[in-house]
Amino acid sequence: MTEKKHEGVSRRDFVKGAATGVCAGTFATMGLYSYSSSAKKRLAKITRSMKDFGVLKNVKITNISETSWFNNADLIGDIHEAGGLLVNQYSLNWPPFGNGKGSAQGSYESGIASIKDLIPKDLDKAWGLQEKLSLHPENAGGYACLIEVEELNGKTHKYLLDTGWSYTWTDAAFKREGIDKMLENHEIEALFISHEHWDHFWGFPVTMKYDPTIPVFIQDGFYPEGLQYIKDSGHTGPLTSYKKAVNPFIPGMAVLKFDVPIINRVFGEISLAFNVKDKGLVLVSGCCHQGILKFADLARTELKYENDRFYGIYGGLHISPFEDWDPKYDDLVISLGKWGFEKIGCNHCTGHLTAKKFVEAGYPVIRGTARFRSSSPDYLGNGDKISFGA
Questions:
Q1: How far apart are CA 267 and CA 224, in angstroms?
Q2: Is residue 45 very low, low, confident or very high in pLDDT (cuts 50, 70, 90)?
């Protein structure tokens, strides 16, 4: 497989960094330290530049899909059988890159060959072929959300954060929430891919099916396979790859980039920050593999925001994604309260056991409806919405 360097980070550095993370906890880059009391103390020592990146009126988020997979045992078992957490995700023989050769025998090239002529127009046929060639195709779901932003002058913007995994699941979720029509009408101005993982990125052709010209924003940790997949999926619009840590986007919105090794040879993640008028800072993540500490550190160090306070958070917080609760995680729940969020819209890799703990602790968690195969009403499930602001 092609080796790649990311601004001084080689594959050898990646393996070393990821292995360190694995030794520190059950899964790499969980960000557990981010919730500890020592992390809170560390924030007070930061020298802050407090750059003014503007302010906006409101942020509304629709959870298109937070169910990335349906069976933890199958997912973990496949990874373990293939060789563990450091195995290249494109070799797992998961759809849409299955080649029929079994565990750890896949590759991007052999997988995409079976469907390249079908994407993005005939996704049902493409996925049908992959169901015959891949391991556990029924386990694939995906993560994606719609972000609607209103500026102070009333101008509105729509963005996608991530684009799912399974072609059929993601397409059905898009149609359920009207995303297909929004894309066809070019109402959605940009697609942000938080990171290269299967459940956030591999459904890319579904977005391309409806708007291949949409501007796409990634970070510079993508590997050659991921960059090729963007091309092979029919994308004809502009592609921006962030290299800087802080990237203002529109008034009151910034893209934050984190260099972090993640399981299955994925590197780097981008998250979003919003400065909401009279409220404070809202943080939005795909998985938050960087951990809340790094997320908050960067935002608090670099950005100026209303009332100098963290107001809300949405997305995956990567605490117990496989529902493998350990009593020591209870300390994390206790520590989260010190951050002072007024609205917590967690789901996905936060884990529903974690969300339940938040609710029991009395935190301001916005609960969901447990519809469309979401497993718990204790977090924002598929089809649920949350607003931060007016």
A1: 12
A2: low
